[in-house]
Amino acid sequence: MKNAFTQLQTLSNNKQGYYSMVQNLFSPPKFVKLTLVGLDSNAFFLMGEFRYRAKKQGWTDAEIDKVIEECESRDYQHLLATLQTHCIEP
Description:
Blueprint: H1 4-12, H2 18-21, E1 32-33, H3 43-56, H4 61-72, H5 76-85, E2 87-88
Parallel strand pairs: 1-2
């Protein structure tokens, strides 16, 4: 089973530049301190971990929901790109 990091590497190597098209939804940009490397690649697990960490770091429910809704708006690659855009290494 691939982990989230392997999926992100594949995504960032995409010739269409899809990853670079996803932008942070906030101005100024907001980030959750979360390392995606080594996490289970299950979409629900990743969104759950993002929600948990964001809540612990003071994000409002509305801010979290905005990111999760964007994650769910397209395919799995978009989900990964959206999470990566809103996460920063702790």
